[in-house]
Amino acid sequence: MKMGIRSRLLSGSAAVFAAGALVLAASPAQATSASGSWGIPGGNKISVNAWHCGFYVNACDWKASTKMSGSKPTKAKWIQNRAELAAHGVSVSIKISKNPEATLTMKSKSMGEVRWKNTKAKISDTHGQMRPSKSTVYVSTKSCGSAQVTSKIKVSEKCVYAGAA
Does the structure show a pLDDT above 90 at 10? Predict the structure, then answer.
């Protein structure tokens, strides 16, 4: 059977689209992440990290952390992570789960804030799952860290953002 040029082009385009869809469905989802590090007096460093799934159907795992590295001192009086988790789009909403020690405050129907202040520690990790509504275009994670290292060294909030710009 003889095919015209238009039929061959359409059939070739369909094959390329199907192959691309197969690769997307078969390959593991890429994560969306951001991180930053800041030096603090005494030689230690504070690092703030944000991570969430790059592709989801119904739910998206997320993690956020604030970590202090160094030995002067090895632990902070307190260290805190505050994560803002949001669904973006028109008339969207989000449900959020989190680790038990953290607190969740819904700021709106499409954004929640998870916070955990850890004492006598060098890390504050938060994690959970986002369940955005079907009309969500994308989700984002903003992770902010702060600490009281010693009675004289306080680190003001430093943030990183993972999501579409």
Answer: no
Question: Concatenated DSSP letters for 59-105?
Answer: -EEEEEEEEEESSTTSSEEEEEEEEEEEEESTT--EEEEE-TTSEEE
Nearest alpha carbon to residue 40 among 72, 7, 1: 72
The confidence band for 38, taking pLDDT boundaries of 50, 70 and 90, is: very high
Residue 65 · residue 49 · CB < 8 Å: yes
On the CB side of 114, CA atoms within 13 Å amount to: 27
Q: What is the mean pLDDT of residues 152-165?
A: 93
Q: Which of 69, 92, 74, 76 is nearest to 138 (CA)?
A: 92
pTM, entire model: 0.81
Q: Is the peptide bond before 73 cis (omega within 30 degrees of 0)?
A: yes
Could you give the dihedral angle defined by the CA atoms of residues 148, 150, 154 and 160, in that order, rounded to the nearest 10 degrees?
-50
Phi, psi dihedral angles at 18 (to 5 degrees) = -65, -40
Strand partners of residue 9: none
pLDDT tens digits, 115-138: 999 999 999 999 999 999 999 999
